[in-house]
Amino acid sequence: MNSVTPKIRFTNVYKSFGTKKVLQGINLDVMPQESVVIIGGSGTGKSVLIKSVLGIVKPDSGTIEIEGRDVSKLSHHEREQQLKKFGMLFQGGALFDSMKIWQNIAFGLIQGAGMDKKEAKTIALEKLKQVGLTADVAELYPSELSGGMQKRVALARAIATKPDVIFFDEPTTGLDPIMADVINELIVKCVKDLGATALTITHDMHSVRKIADKVAMLFEGKILWQGTVAELDTCDNDYVQKFVSGMSTAVKVA
Amino acid sequence: MKFSPALDGALHAVINRFFVQAFLQSIGRNFLNFLEAIGRFAMFAILALSHCVRAPFYLKNMGRLMIDFGYYSLPVVGLTAAFTGMVLALQSYSGFSRFSAEGAIAGVVALSVTRELGPVLAGLMVAGRVGAAIAAELGTMRVTEQIDALSTLSTNPYKYLIVPRLIAATVTMPLLVVIADIIGIFGGFIIGVYHLNFNAGAYLKNTLDILTFTDVFSGLVKAAAFGFIIALLGCYNGFNSKGGAQGVGNATTYAVVSASMLILMSNFFITALFFGV
Asked: B151 vs A56: CB contact, 8 Å cut-off?
C-alpha cells in the first residue's frame, strides 16, 4: 500500500453544464513530483477537470483533495494560500494584452506575493531567459509576439512564482512541430528544475511521450485507462489504441 | 379528407389544447428565465458591492480608470450639454414668447439642465462610450481566459476588475455632470444673450436666483447612480460573456441597451424621491 499522500486526488467528481454531462465520476491520483498527462478527445472535459482543481469551475459532487485536504472545505483564506502554490499555462496563453511582457510574468509576484516591482522585474527577466527569450522582448506587448513566443511567455509566467503544482492546458496546440518540441523540452526542464508536480492535458501524443510519467485517458466523463507511457503502447483497450495510433480502427502497437 | 363531425371536433380540441399548452409553457419558461437572470444579476451586484468594502484596493487601477471614464468623456459630454442648453433656450423662447414669458427662459434652462438633461444625457453618452468599453474589454478577457488567469495568479477578478470600475464610474459621473451643467447653462446663455438679445447680467441673475441646492444636488445623486448602473451592467455583461467574438458583441450591446433603459427608469424614481408630491 502506498503511504505517500497524493498531491491531487479526484474522487467521484461529477460536473454537468445544463443537460450536458461532462465529468461522470472521475477518480485519479497525482503523486508528488509526478508528471501526469490526461489525454482524450475534444469536448471530453479535460479542461473542466483542471479548472475544477483551480476553483474556476465548481464540481457538482465528489471531492478534490490537495495534499490530503478537501478543497471544498477550505476557508476563503486557505484557498487563496493554496492557489499561490499553483501555476497554470493556458491553451491560448491568456496573457494580459494591456500589459507589457515583463509585467505579465511579474504579475503573480507583484499582486499575489506582494513583491517589490523592481525585484519582480529582475525575476521576470530571469524567467524570460529561462524560456529562451531575450530581455528586449520584456518591453513589448503580447500582440507583438508570435504564437510560439507567447506560449513561452505564458510558461515563464506560470513558473515565475515557483509553484508546487503546474497545470498545462494543451501547451503545444497551434504550434509547428519544432516549436511544439521546444515547448515540451521547456516544460520538462522547468518542472524538473522546480521539483514540481505537473498535470497536463493534451491531444498531442508526441507531448505525451516527452512529458508524461503517467498517462490517463478520459472518455465519456470517466478515466477509461491509466498507466505509464510504456504501458500505453501495449495497452489492450481499443479506444486508447485508436487514440494513440490516430486511426479510426484500432492498431495495436507492438 | 373529410372526418365525421365527432372526430373533427376531437381533433380541433387536441390541436387547440396542444397550442394553448405550448403557448403557456413558452410564457412560463420565459418568466422563469427572466427570474433566473434577475437572480444572477442580483448575486453579481451583491458580490461586487461586498468586495467594494474589503481590501485590497487597487487604487492605481482606479485612478487610471477615473481618467479614462471622466477626462476622456469630457468632449462628448461637453458637446452634448452645450447643444442641449442652446436648443433648450431656443425652444423655450419659441414657446414662452407666445405668453410673453421670455423672462423665464434662463430659469427653465438652468432647472432643466441641472435636474434632468445634464445627468440623463451625460449618463446616456457615457453608457455608450464607457459601458460599451467595459463590456468589450471584460468580455474579451473572459473569452481569452485572461479572467481565469487572474484567479490562478492569486488575484480576485472582482477586486481587480469590477470594484475599480464601479468606484471610478460612480465617483466620476457627478464630476462630469457638474461640468455638463455649467456648459449646458452657458450654452443657453450664449443663445439668450447673443441670439435672443437678452441682457447678460439679467440672464445670469435669473439663473442664479432660481437655482437651489436641491436642484443641483438631485442631479449629482442621479449622476452617481447612473455611473454605478453603467459600470455594473458593463461589468456584468462583459464578465459573463461567452462564445467568442459574437458573445463579446452581444455583451456590449446588452450592456449599452440595458444601462440606457435602467438610467431612464431609475431617473423617474430618483426624481420622485426628490420632487415627488
From this structure: yes
